[in-house]
Amino acid sequence: MKIELLSTFLEVSHTLHVRVAAENLFLTQAAVSARIKQLEEDLGVQLFDRSQKRLKLTPEGHRLTRHAKEMLTLWQKIKLDVGIAQDNSIQLFVGSITSIWDVVLQDWLQKIHRNLDDVCLHTSTYSSLELRKQIQTRLLDIAFLFEPTYSEDVITEKVATVPLQLVSTTDNLSVSDIENFISVDYGESVNSQFRRHFNELITPRHHMSQPRVALNFILDAGGSAYLPRQLCFEYIRKKKLFLVDSTPVFEREIFAVYLAQNQKLATIEDALQIFPHIRS
User: Fold this and answer.
1) 220 and 203, same structural domain?
2) CA 19 to CA 54: how far, in whole Å?
């Protein structure tokens, strides 16, 4: 199956219009229609319902969308691994959930840039479920997760312990006076600790999945949140944020996940050796 058939299918599935897809791909409408027809013949199924004025994906078309995206991503990875290999650079594909990028990975990328001259980085953001899948299908070399993954063919290594502390834009604030509290999702282990300790003492005003979004929000609107020490250290030093006294510090562990049978294993291990935070 030719890659251009899949890329054409994805464009049509996105626009649901042959003319628009043809314009976006710089092809004729006849060429786009011919590619879709050839793909349907190769697979032996109908990918689009053409009974209405506007195209509609069939159930088979919906299923192909996911596989087509994975195949195109893999093809891009192959081209980078093989095509750019002539300049002796090692292509390292790294993925993480957004909140981990915010907390620790920015500094790590800088360390790789300064210390591993032969490494070319490709970074992406995915959900935890998608990260595990991308590792298994070799679309990623390293994934960073809050929840560890255990499998015979996967290495899971703790690379950081992130202290989470309750901070506020108001100095000398007591827990009973907290009103504009922003709840940040660090996973169920931290969420359950929070519920056990504070019970009904703190009622969240808003819920946010990314620490940096919560940080920017309270700096602008005022309020409190549990934030990573690494993220709010400078703001505490400049007295833009203040620690809330007599409150517990929660911890969140970060894990690196990678395949044991990876031809880039030595590079992965070198990269993790210069990880900038606590390792044990």
Assistant:
1) yes
2) 11
